[in-house]
What does this fold into?
Amino acid sequence: MALVGQAIILGRALEQHMTERLKPHRLIYTDFDVLATLRRAGDPYTLSPSALRASVLLTSGAMSAALDRLERKGLLTRTPSPTDRRSMAARLTPRGVTLAEELVAIRFAEAQDVAALLPAAQRKATAAALKRLLGALAET
It folds into this structure.
């Protein structure tokens, strides 16, 4: 339980740090997750809501709410999907791409700062152990 508990606490602490960075932009962590996922998709930074939900792990209603918020802020647009006429694809606007890149850079810098608290050998061993645990968990 100590290992699992510490992993959960660390995840929450990292999320809380990012949440603080999002406040000036009036975004919540879910919004960041959607922006980062669209950015990670690469140019043209477009995904269907179902592809977004698979990556961000939101319910359909929560995804719609996040997309609505981000669209109102001018960070993304929704256009009919070329592969499914019933679906509206989400696409980052140029402003959305810029903000996503800024926020992802902040997220990576914080991760590097946290990781740097451990010696290199411990970072490698910890990452490998967590990867094994996640892999084993995925198999259950």
The two ends are 18 Å apart (CA to CA). The chain has six helices and three strands. The mean pLDDT is 91. The longest strand covers residues 76-80.
